[in-house]
Design goal:
The protein is of the alpha+beta class and 65 residues long. The chain contains 3 helices and 3 strands.
């Protein structure tokens, strides 16, 4: 029986914490930053937590379940 591979794009995009939470980078911080406020850009630099509704899907991509 062959090994099951982890999804390569998912392992680059998500980070699993020690407590089991899955973090992701927030969107809209790549370009067109001049019109966005400093507060908004600062908030986007903090990692977000994956929503409960998406948790099963992301865990399956990362082969945690």
């Amino acid at each position: 029986m062959p090994k099951v591979k982890t999804n390569s794009s998912a392992k680059k995009r998500f980070k699993v914490t020690g407590t089991g939470k899955i973090l992701h980078q927030k969107s809209f911080k790549r370009h067109i930053l001049t019109k966005k406020s400093k507060k908004r850009k600062r908030a986007m630099s903090i990692d977000g937590q994956v929503a409960k509704s998406h948790m099963d899907f992301v865990m399956r991509l990362l082969r945690l379940k």
